[in-house]
Amino acid sequence: MTLNFARTQSSATLTAVPNKGAGKSPGWQNIPHIQQLRPDGANEGYVNGNTFCGPAVVAMLARGANRQSGLSDARLIQELAQGLVSPNGASPQDLATMLERVNLPLGGPALGGSYSDAELQQHLRQGHKLIAQVESVNAKTGERSAHYILVRGMTPEGNYRISNPLAGHPQVVSPQRLRGLVGRAPPDGGMLIPVAEPRYVSEASGPSKPKAAWLEAPKRDGAPCGVMARREARHDFELDIDYIGREAERWGFSRPVTPERLSVPEFADRLLWLKRKGDPKALFLLAYLQSSPFSRDQRVCERVTRAELKQPGIGKKLVGDPCLW
Predict the structure, then answer these.
(1) CA–CA dist 265, 247 (Å, integer)
(2) Would you call 155 helix, strand, or coil by DSSP?
(3) Residue 266: helix, strand or coil by DSSP?
(4) Which of 197, 242, 263, 306 could be joined to 109 by an S-S link, Cβ 3.0–4.6 Å?
């Protein structure tokens, strides 16, 4: 499975906000690069790492807020994945639940595949990080799958700094390359999930030797998994997708976009089919549907959104060097 990025960053940790002391002020601290297959603390109990791209990315962000310092990276990934990650990976809504488990706020609705670089860069200027659902391809078999990476910031040249949890180091990718990877994420294009700066930074406390990966999953009532479960039970984080572009905002509506001959489920299924084919018309239609004042159009858009938020992402083990395309 390969992701073709431009080059590798020399440092395994990129600093978003200088660490002036844990617990003093909100904002990102040092966000490390975490590898999903062999994270720190991995042992014989750390299995299914090939499905853990989502929790690995969330674990990077959790470390950027000093969350769960008493757990190794491997154990934190397991705790985040518990009950959410299947053999097919995790859905975007599952990632929102993982963020809730470590008390990291969403930065707004997800950006759909028709996002603009201006929208993405506005999030970065606000201090947000973005979880990108992208295409990953097995170089040996040609198999395509969806995968999660972290967009950490920008270079002075206008490229994006990213962390791919299948790679060994942070990397740099051009705006055009990232847009292509998001647009081709199977089955019908990916999205970008913005994560706001943490409202507080946890105190950097914990045992000198963090807990390694578990050999057998503990019951959900136990800490820290139980604490995470109680937090997610509040359902504070419900992810949405923003499809609206500038053209749709200027569009005047005199009648519904949804054809009268098609029911709401039929038109929603057709849009999903068009997206799976890679037809750009689907994204334009979704933008118009989302901005339409007609309830029929809104129901179609809601149905498509619910379907997309359930589509899993899974980063399988790479064949060869993940940093090379």
Answers:
(1) 26
(2) coil
(3) helix
(4) 242
- In order along its 325 residues, the chain shows pLDDT tens digits of 455 444 444 333 343 333 333 444 578 999 999 999 999 999 988 988 989 999 999 999 999 999 988 899 999 999 999 999 988 889 999 999 999 999 999 999 999 988 999 999 999 999 999 999 999 887 788 888 899 999 999 999 999 999 999 999 999 999 999 999 999 998 888 999 999 999 877 665 554 566 666 555 555 555 455 555 555 555 556 778 887 755 555 556 678 899 999 999 999 999 988 888 778 788 888 888 988 889 999 999 999 988 888 776 655 443 333 333 3
Structure token pair of residue 222: 């136990």
What is the distance between the alpha carbons of residues 113 and 120, in angstroms, rounded to a whole number? Answer: 11
Ranges of beta strands (E only) in the chain are 7-8, 13-15, 30-32, 110-111, 129-137, 144-154, 160-163, 171-173, 192-195, 241-242
Whats the size of the chain, residue-wise? 325
Please classify residue 322 by burial: count the beta carbons closer than 10 Å to its beta carbon, then call 0-12 exposed, 13-18 middle and 19+ buried. buried
Closest CA to 119 of 62, 184, 187, 194: 194
Task: State the SS3 of 62-76.
Answer: HHCCCCCCCECHHHH
Q: Is 250 helix (H, G, I), strand (E, B) or coil?
A: helix
Beta strands 192-195; 129-137: pairing state:
antiparallel
**Structure-derived torsion over alpha carbons of residues 235, 272, 124, 29, reported in degrees to the nearest 10:** 40
Closest by Cα among 25, 10, 36 to 316: 36
Whole-structure pTM over 0.90, yes or no? no
Q: What is the DSSP-derived secondary structure letter of residue 20?
A: -
- Residue among 18, 26, 11, 75 nearest 49 (CA): 75
Amino acid present at 252: G
Phi, psi for 253 (deg, rounded to 5): -115, 120
Q: Using alpha carbons, select from 181, 249, 261, 257 the residue that is nearest to residue 1.
A: 181
